[in-house]
Amino acid sequence: MQQEFAVEESRGNRLPGERFCPMEDELVLFYLKPMLSGEMVPGRNRVVFDCDLYGHQEPWEIWEAYKTRRPNDLRLNKDIYFFTQHKTMSSTDTRIRRTVGNGTWKGDDSGKPVKSLETGRVVGLKKRLTYKNQASEHNGCWILYEFYLDPSLRDKKQKVEDYVLCLLRKNGEPKAKIKKRRKQREEEDVLENNYACDDGENTNKEQPQAKRQRMGEQNGDSNTLFPRFNQATIMECLFHYRRKISSGRKCYNKWVLETIMEYRRKIFCGMIY
């Protein structure tokens, strides 16, 4: 039994529920420090991958390329860890070039100290950056954390220069997907209300005819202000709207939304027959 467990461990098999979820000081001391010293890094290219995060690939392309490597980790956090090398603007300009794909990594702060949980000593620095590209729907949807080793812990015979350990985090979905999902929810709400009306469900004890009469007395002639809609007509409009969305064609959004809101109001007032 012990031999079988040892074999599974040597093959890199993980226990159910086991995830790579290190603390910040652990990232700096046990992964970044040996990387900079030229020593063996535990789990290199298994839990922390070598990748150019300042190259031609967009953040979501990098994410798609590596997300299958650690699927169990992504069930808890939307984070993938990388080693990447800084690049300067030019041979004479020592500023760090932070372009990525057609966008750029924009710094959100000047950095926060990373302290050891055991000793309280500062062991590194953490910087937060956000993906910026006004022309892309992914603008603001990706976060990058850079971890630096504190200079006091650097080896004088350091063999690797300009490397940082990075955490790439998925920060929500593109606005277009969010807007599309919101529209679908609105349609589903309207359809559910319609089905409830068809099934004869009425939470208000007041009968529809009496309610229409009462609303007419309060607001004048309700049929003049708000002509009664036939359910079949409304459902035909909604079906037409849904078909346009599924086909990707443009439609009269303002008119459709006004129709939907008017329809829901008339359901509430008992004005639809």
From TrEMBL:
UniProt entry tagged with the keyword Nucleus: yes
Transmembrane segment boundaries: none
Extent of the signal sequence: none
Renumbered residue ranges of the record's region Disordered: 176-224
Gene Ontology biological process terms from the UniProt entry: regulation of DNA-templated transcription
NAC domain: residues covered: 14-171
GO molecular function, one term: DNA binding
SUPFAM superfamilies reported for this sequence: NAC domain (SSF101941)
Keyword Oxidoreductase included in the entry's annotation: no
A Pfam family hit: NAM
GO-annotated cellular components: nucleus
Keywords, in A-Z order: DNA-binding, Nucleus, Transcription, Transcription regulation
Subcellular location: Nucleus
Stated name of the protein: Putative transcription factor NAM family
Organism of this sequence: Rosa chinensis (China rose)
